[in-house]
Amino acid sequence: MRASALSAGVVVTGAPIVSAASPLRVQVLAYEGAEDLDYVGPYDVLSRAADKGGAIRTTLVSPYRPTTITTAKGIRVEVPRGWSPQDADVLVVPGGGMHNQPGSGLHRLIADKGFMRRLADAKPVKVGVCTGVMALSAAGITRGRPATTHTAAKPYLAEQGATVINARVVDDGDLVTCAGVTSGIDGAIWLIERFLGAELATDVETVLEYERRGTVWRD
After folding, report:
1. What is the rounded CA–CA span in Å between residue 78 and residue 72?
2. Model confidence band, residue 15 (pLDDT cutoffs 50, 70, 90)
C-alpha cells in the first residue's frame, strides 16, 4: 500500500497517493463460479472512470494465474492476470452463490486455504461485493468491524463476528463492503468519489445513467 493521501478534500488514512503518474491500481477478482454482475458491475464502472480521464487502472484477475473461468451464469471469460497483492491498492472480491452452498463458486473459493491465507495477509483496501463479503469474513477480515452483505447472508456475517449494517455500502477505511449484487455498482462509484473526487463520480453516474441509492455508511 502506498502512503496516505488527501482525496476529494478528505484525509483518508492508509489510502494510496493517486496522480496521473501513480494511478489507483484496482484488481477485480474473477473466479470459477463468480456471480457475473458482482464483478462485471464494478469493473465496468471503474473502467469508465479511466475513460473519463481518471487516474485509475483496473485489471481483471484470477486467484492465481491467467485462466479461463465459467461464471455463475455459464459465461466463459478469459482472465488475463493472476492476483498480485503487491501490485494493487484495491482488491474487489465478488460473490459466487452462498458460502455454505456446496459446489458454489464462493464455497470452493473459501475452501482454498492457500488463497484465503493470502487474502488475510494482503495489504490492499479490500472491497467485498454481495456474498463476496463472506470470503472476507472467512479470512477473519470483518470480525469486530462494521460490514454489510446480501440480505440472505447477513445472519451468517453476524454469527462470524461482524457488526452488520443495513446499508448498500459500508466504508470502514481499508474495508469496504457492499450489499446484494447491484450494490457493487454503488460501491465502485463510491470508490471513485473517495479516491478520485465527487466530480468524476458524478460524471460516471451520468454516463451510466445510474443513480446511487441511499448513502454510504461511514463511522
Report:
1. 14
2. low
